[in-house]
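Bench log. Compound arrived from synthesis this morning; before running ITC I wanted a structural hypothesis for how beta-D-glucopyranuronic acid sits in the protein. Inputs:
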Amino acid sequence: MQNRRHLIQATLCAAFACAAIPAAAQTVTLKAADVHPAGYPNVVAIENLGKKLETATKGKIKLQMFPGGVLGSEKEVVEQTQVGAIQIARISLGVLGPVVPDVNVFNMPFVFRDEAHMRKVIDGPIGEEILTKITNSPARLVALGYMDSGSRSLYTKKPVRKPEDLKGQKIRMMGNPLFVDTMNAMGGNGISMGHTEVFGALQTGVIDGAENNPPTLYTSNQYTTVKYYTQTNHLIIPEIFVMSKVTWDKLSKDEQALVKKFSREAQMEQRGLWDKSVAEYTQKLKAAGIEFINTDTKPFYDATAPVRAKYGAQFADLMKRIADVK
Ligand code: BDP
């Protein structure tokens, strides 16, 4: 904890020192943050975006990736990006919900039929509209693109096959009241917590389980503390990467256009890496003895209807348009 605080301070200082360099200075180094470790698809795609930017601007714009959550939790990273201390943040849309409520339409349980449906929506006009809403919101963030995060399913120490099996189980959710309500509706007790704290909380028994996709379950080591992975697929939440508005406003029109172009390419590149990664980590989880439970998702869908009613009322038209994307 102490170390992390020092790192955050060091980063902030670096950012302010950087800001003090005269505008005529030749190079800009964009600091990018991700909670995932080096090698994770999202991290690789942003690093490659940085390499393309560096080449296209002949070294004027560089990118330095800080993976593994060293710059703080996603909530902290969002805050630092808003003030310009971090320049690019790759985060879950889940965590952006409390900052830009419009994105919550994608954060609702079972809002997408499956991952293919989610991809069609984010690649099309609705996806573009949500990016514009983020950029035009008072959050001081410029939305660059989406990434894939597959489907989130439950992992626990005791087997879960139906909502009743979650009774009394404390299940970690991302920091957004919508998700705590979702878990409570699914039958468990939702506890919100930052990603990097989940492993310790599972180890010490502070929580009984959590929910995520196979690559995250494996690469965070959380799989060593649980036995079952129940394929509820209750949340299909895209990832997002954003740039600090402070940084964006300092770029020339041409540079902004390059960032946009390479961002779209990063969105597509990550997708290919993502599909391979899901296959690879699903195998690894099975090899490590995690039992996959392929359960009927309908009772979980039905149980979460009140959550869609409560949070979805304000998005009724948009939800209809999402459902109509075939
Ligand atoms: C992962 C997302 C990451 C979130 C994490 C979480 O890629 O952005 O921080 O879930 O559960 O799937 O917090």
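What the model suggests: The radius of gyration is 20 Å. Residues 35, 74, 91-92, 149, 174, 195, 212-213, 216, 239 surround beta-D-glucopyranuronic acid (CB under 6 Å).
ITC booked for Thursday regardless.
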